[in-house]
Write a structure and sequence with these properties.
Fumarylacetoacetate hydrolase, domain 2, 2 domains, nine-stranded mixed sheet, five-stranded mixed sheet, 7 helices, 16 strands
Length: 280
């Protein structure tokens, strides 16, 4: 029996799965039905092995790999993000909030996006018109089914207005939740085991063809366990179709950097792939 991970894509023709060199369309299955199956990995793996392979030369239009799931996010899960958030809030007198939440038992959790607002691979992300300091935040995203089990992983970009959040911690929803602020893709990695701690999360931002920022971190630098984050999220919330949960960022551009119109943001987490978006 194959235990190789399966990549699940959402395309203009519906869900498509890839395992190794085989690419199969999952006919008569909705995205939500796949993710909320009791054993989604086995369901998709069986379809890949028994289904009719698609011609790999036929192009498919990739969509954001999400169904009707809400998107949530965790903050201050990396030491680097704690420092950056403290710097943002220092002038407003709130820097101790982030130091305290980094060491607290309860994580910071916040709502990020409805599925309709999620931007897919190749789509356009935005910065707020009233922000003068906005950055991408590259993150590993957990895909959680209705039973609260992590069934997959994808790549996420939590675009954030650092100046608005830094002005007052109560402005966090405005800094984080707006049209074009959430991107995920290019696929969901269905795996029976989580990514190894050494898995690299990398970002590269180009402007007019030149790299203006690049950085990387690893999954092992996340302070909290995935079960801990999901457990707190589901304490008083139920998700009939499951949910997506961003796990925080450990890559912070320098303070003098802000996103500009036309920037291309590339976030890579192998074996999931690269999420590429352009700033409006």
């Amino acid at each position: 029996m194959s235990t190789r991970p399966v990549l699940l894509f959402l395309t203009s023709q519906g869900p498509v799965a890839r395992q190794g060199d085989r690419v199969v369309r999952l006919d008569h299955l909705s995205w939500d039905a796949v993710l909320n199956d009791r054993a989604p990995y086995e369901l998709v793996r069986t379809r890949v092995e028994s289904g009719t392979a698609l011609d790999p030369t036929v192009p498919l239009t990739l969509l954001a790999p999400i169904g009707t799931q809400e998107v949530w996010a965790a903050g201050v899960t990396y030491y680097r993000s704690r420092d950056a958030r403290m710097d943002e809030a220092r002038e407003a007198g709130g820097s101790s909030f982030y130091d305290r939440v980094y060491g607290a038992e309860r994580p910071e959790l916040f709502f990020k996006s409805t599925p309709a607002r999620v931007v897919g691979p190749g789509g356009t992300v935005r910065v707020r018109r009233d922000s003068h300091w906005s950055v991408p935040e590259p993150e590993l995203v957990l895909v959680v089914n209705a039973a609260g089990t992590v069934v997959g992983y994808t790549v996420g970009n939590d675009v954030s207005a650092r100046d608005i959040e830094g002005e007052n911690p109560l402005y966090l929803p405005q800094a984080k939740v707006y049209d074009g602020s959430c991107a995920i893709g290019p696929a969901v990695w269905l795996s029976q085991t989580p990514p190894d701690a050494s898995t690299v999360i990398a970002i590269e931002i180009t402007r007019a063809g030149e790299v203006v920022f690049a950085g990387d971190t690893s999954v092992g630098m996340i302070k909290r366990t995935f079960d801990d984050l999901v457990g707190y999220l589901r304490r008083e919330l139920s998700f009939d179709a499951g949910c997506y949960l961003f796990t925080g960022t450990g890559i912070i551009p320098p303070d003098e950097f802000t996103l500009a119109s036309g920037d291309e943001v590339r976030i890579t987490i192998e074996p999931i792939g690269t999420l590429t978006n352009v700033v409006a």
